[in-house]
Design a protein that fits this description.
The complex is a heterodimer of chains A (317) and B (249). Chain A contains 14 helices and two strands, in the order ααααααβααααβαααα. Chain A is mainly alpha-helical. Chain A has a domain of 212 residues. A two-stranded antiparallel sheet of chain A has the order 1-2. In chain A, helix 2 crosses helix 11. Chain A is globular, with a radius of gyration of 19 Å. The mean pLDDT of chain A is 93. With 249 residues, chain B is of the alpha/beta class. Chain B has a domain of 134 residues: Rossmann fold. In chain B, 37% of the residues lie in helices and 25% in strands. Chain B contains nine helices and ten strands. In chain B, strand 9 and strand 10 form a beta hairpin. The longest helix of chain B has 17 residues. Chain B is globular and about 55 Å long. Classes of the chains: A mainly alpha (317), B alpha/beta (249).
């Protein structure tokens, strides 16, 4: 047990030490953490056997909500920006969710994609409001009324991201283990029985869908604030595909895997694009191929297997 | 005076050219075990599907405790107290036997707290007792896909019983089970039903089981309810011997 907790604890400590030990990695890690939170949102749906190819929608909605709020309320506080942005993602998750939860499998995936692409088109075409393809600036929010310089602000964002990763990761795992979370996951195996337990599968899926929208929104707003600009690329289908990619890479259905996958993905992407120019996508594709062929439970599956060999048995969430 | 728990009136439905329910009217008394017998394709399962709202009849009504439940979806009918066990057990295959029951209990109690652990819900002891009642306490922590067909059937019934239903509809509870195990399963089942004071309807092909465990028998043929009565009376009827028992043998 101690050993099982020791490795994740050491990883968290290593991440927390980055701003001091390896400051050049701080931005990369912060973006990876933001993406990781969003990937947990996709992971939630994978637990119910559903793949969304459009969850960048909520990533973008939250980021744009933050940008619009900051533009209309200069000096808005960070907490307010975060709350409004995530509320925007949740609200749109409820609206879109009410429609898409009636579908399953490829229809569910493609409908989500359709909604995200509609939003992407709106962002691209309503230039006067959204800045079109250039996007809009997301000025640095104040922190408890204080306007901070870039350095301290980025440090706060980094540790806020680490805290949110821990809090939201913990919450999602607890929710998975809760009666509501378990009922949600049975959508994957038997909706008929679910109906005969007096439960509406649609309503059960909606609850998880809203959670996933909230998580994607949280990732999106952090990404927007850290980058200082939001663009339609936030809602682009490749962004949604990237989230599914990371979820599979880390270990489909695993919360820890979502973060580990996001860190690996961002690292490979950054360094492969720097050193391998035009072929970095091929490097990533090859990496995913190896994972799917030789470790279908993702990176976290490899970790679990290694842990099981060392300690007898083990399973990470 | 006996009390009618579920009543079907003039049910009618066809699938293409096949009449699956042809003016079916049947009343089920509270506290009784009713067996439905008949050849394959007679409309027995369709009757259960209509009673639970899975299929809507083109004509006729279903009343449960006097309330018209015909237009309701299955989940609403379940909430009124009608549970179902299936010919092919409908379980959550990625969960253990106990977890299947805990999920059922959570659904019954509408537990929604996001931080409560399913394994620590108050109903856990009750669910373990239920598993014990159906003789599956020793496999509580095993995934249901690892269980034998007979055990899966019993867990499926226990999942339905976990809802504390007033009426349990079972589709061939002993089919696919070794002959030697059938009576054992029914013994466990009838005891559990009586302990939980649950009225039951079960579709069955084994006349030995029908004669031993049913209080009343309804005979189906070509979508019609042919006759209804005590097992002694029905199982000796020449038409039943010719059309149903002959085929079952």
């Amino acid at each position: 047990m101690t050993f099982r907790l020791a490795i994740p604890a050491l990883l968290v400590l290593a991440v927390a030490a980055i701003p001091f030990a390896a400051p050049q990695l701080q931005l990369l890690m912060n973006l990876a953490l933001a993406k990781g939170i969003a990937v947990v949102g996709v992971t939630v749906l994978l637990r119910a056997g559903q793949v969304s190819f459009g969850h960048a929608l909520y990533f973008a909605i939250a980021a744009y909500a933050a940008a619009f709020l900051s533009a209309s309320m200069p000096g808005a506080d960070l907490v307010l920006v975060l709350v409004v942005a995530v509320a925007g993602a949740v609200l749109s998750g409820i609206i879109v969710g009410l429609f898409v939860v009636r579908y399953r499998g490829i229809f569910f995936g493609m409908l989500n994609l359709a909604f995200s692409m509609i939003f992407w088109s709106i962002l691209e075409k309503f230039y006067h409001y959204t800045g079109g393809a250039d996007g809009i600036r997301l000025p640095r929010p104040t922190v408890f009324g204080m306007a901070l310089e870039r350095g301290p602000f980025e440090l706060i964002m980094f540790y806020l991201s680490v805290a949110l990763v821990l809090l939201l990761g913990w919450f999602t795992m607890r929710w998975f283990a809760s009666p509501a979370g378990q009922i949600f996951q049975t959508i994957k195996t038997n909706e008929t029985r679910l109906q005969y337990l007096g439960v509406s599968p649609q309503r059960a899926l909606l609850s998880g869908y809203i959670l996933s929208a909230a998580l994607c929104g949280t990732g999106g707003v952090i990404m927007g604030i850290v980058q200082g600009v939001v663009t339609p690329e936030f809602a682009w289908w490749i962004r949604s595909g990237e989230m599914v990619f990371i979820a599979v890479l880390g270990g489909a259905g695993s919360v820890a895997g979502a973060f580990v996958g996001a860190v690996i993905y961002e690292t490979i992407r950054t360094y492969a694009s720097a050193f391998a120019g035009d072929v970095w996508q091929m490097v990533l594709g090859g990496f995913l191929l190896v994972i799917i062929l030789f470790a279908p439970k993702g990176v976290i599956g490899i970790y679990d297997a290694a842990l099981a060999r060392l300690t007898g048995k083990g399973r990470s969430e | 005076m006996s009390e009618i728990l579920l009543e079907a009136r003039n049910l009618q439905i066809s699938f293409g050219g096949v009449v699956a329910a042809d003016d079916v009217s049947l009343a089920i008394e509270r506290g009784k075990n009713l067996a439905i017998i008949g050849p394959n394709g007679a409309g027995k399962t369709t009757f259960l599907n209509i009673c639970t709202g899975w299929i809507k009849p083109t004509r006729g009504k279903v009343y449960f405790e006097g309330q018209d439940v015909t237009p309701l979806p299955p989940r609403r009918i379940v909430r009124l107290g009608v549970a179902r066990a299936f010919q092919i057990p409908q379980l959550f295959t990625e969960h253990t036997a106990l977890e299947n029951l805990l999920i059922s209990a959570a659904a019954r109690e509408q537990l929604r707290h996001p931080l409560q652990n399913l394994h620590r819900i108050r109903e856990r002891a009750e669910m373990l007792h239920l598993l014990d009642m159906v003789g599956c306490a020793d496999v509580a922590d095993r995934l249901v896909v690892e269980l034998s067909e007979g055990q899966r059937k019993l867990v499926d019934i226990a999942v339905a019983l976990a809802l504390r239903p007033k009426l349990l509809l079972m589709d061939e509870p002993t089919s696919g089970v070794a002959s030697s195990e059938k009576f054992k399963i029914m013994e466990i089942l009838v005891k559990a039903l009586s302990e939980a004071k649950v009225t039951s309807v079960f579709v069955e092909h084994d006349m030995g089981i029908v004669s031993r465990y049913a209080d009343e028998v309804a005979v189906w043929a070509a979508g019609r309810l042919q006759m209804q009565g005590s097992p002694e009376e029905i199982l000796r009827h020449p038409d039943v011997i010719r059309d149903v028992i002959g085929e079952a043998v």
